[in-house]
Amino acid sequence: MSVGRTVVEPPVAEKIAALTALATPGVIRLEPSISALAASLGRRALGGPGSWRGAGNGALPPTAGVRAEITEDQVTVEVALAVELGRSVPVVAADAQQRIADALRELGSFAVESVTILVVDVDQG
Amino acid sequence: MVTTQYETQSRAKTGPPSDTWADETLVARARDGDTRAFEALVRRYQGPIYRLAVRMLNDAAEAEDVTQEVFVTAWRRLPGIQDDKAVRAWLYRIATNRCLNILRARKPTAPLQEEMIPAANPATSPEARAEAHERLAALRIALGQLTAEQRACWLLREVEELSYAEIATILHTTPQAVRGRLARARAELGEAMISWQ
Amino acid sequence: MAVREVDDGYQLPCGQDAAVLWEHVAAGELDEHELGCPHCQAAAEGFRALREASGDLAEADDDLAPPRDLTERIMRAVRTERRRDAFLPVVETGLGPIRVAAQAAAVVVRFAADQAPGVAARSCLVEQLAEEPDGWCAVRLDLTLRYGTDGMAAVARVRELVAAAARELAGFEAARIDITVVDIWQEQA
Hints:
The structure holds three protein chains of three kinds.
Chain A: H1 10-23, E1 27-30, H2 36-41, E2 66-71, E3 74-84, H3 89-107, E4 111-123
Parallel strand pairs in A: 3-4
Antiparallel strand pairs in A: 1-3, 2-3
Chain B: H1 23-31, H2 35-57, H3 60-77, H4 87-105, H5 126-145, H6 148-158, H7 164-171, H8 175-196
Helix pairs in contact in B: 1-2, 2-3, 2-4, 3-4, 4-6, 4-7, 5-8, 6-8, 7-8
Chain C: E1 4-5, E2 10-11, H1 18-27, H2 32-36, H3 38-59, H4 70-80, E3 91-93, E4 96-100, H5 102-114, E5 119-128, E6 136-146, H6 151-170, E7 173-185
Helix pairs in contact in C: 1-3, 5-6
């Protein structure tokens, strides 16, 4: 077996987090939001000049409501979403969080540093 | 002893449907961030706002954009609304100002597009239908020849059926001035309709 | 019609005020002068045509309906506008923080209050309380009541429902629920 580095770009992690969140029962949509993560990274996180995400390829467009940061072997993800009215918000959020962590672990060899869930809205399904 | 059945009930009672709530209830909730309430407001008033924009601007695509801008602006400005009950006139005000700004910025000639003239309502006979169709077309052309302020005045009164006081607020003038503008608009339109006859 | 603009409006060449003629045409009754005057007659014809056409215009609604997807486009734009509001106390699972926006909690509270018969919720504010243990919040709720509803019973029911929903659906303890009845409504006939 040959040895080599496998790199996963943040947009891939974001896409997985987004799809997993949306597949969680009780999650009705993602919510575009200015996240704490993005704010802490400054303008760069929002796709501006020198964006840490925009290094060269533009294969995947930014995923609204999801921010991922990959450092060394660790991935940190933040997802902003809306939960279905009538469901328990903490239960749905925790479910989404678990599923996202599981999906990211399956993706590659890195550890999941943290998965932040922001429940921004509650709405009819 | 309170037990909730939210999780076990497949269909919880959702209370009176938001579409039937009064304007002021929707406004109060929307101001708090309730997007469902705001969506109910959008559904209630997007038709009339769009209709006004189309007839002010004679451009369906632009009218769509204006309608969207009106409601996004309304969402931003909701916290500052003075009278929750008067939201309808408030929306018309945002829309009218937007349309007047666009018209002022436009080049003078904006000819009436033929596609903007839809089929007339069915009348009793083909002749009557054709006459009604032509008469309506003549009115649309005549409307296009009024000044923007006159057109706004006339549409708000004749089609949207707002009160003189509401129109005065929307156009930043007095009810007296509104009557005057309306009378002039009617006179000009009447003159155009004579020529059509 | 050859009108002349005067102080308040327009005058026909015969001196008749166009606005007055309009009123008469609308009422269906012309006065003696107007019946005999060619200027007024011509103008009245124009006004009649105008009234007919206006009626048609007002009814031409269906042809000028906005596209079906406009509501969704507007709501998408509205959702991107949303302020980054306060969040309720953080829940830290082993995997990371879960933060519920106060706004989202307010939706749950309003939903719960709406379940009480005769009640429709209006404004709602959920606030974290500094002086209470983590996870305890204050709820301020404006309500409207249907005319004829027993107000005391309704408000008591609302408190029950809100406390339960806060705990079970939104993940916080409602340490206090301040209710203001702001309006009375009647069922539409």
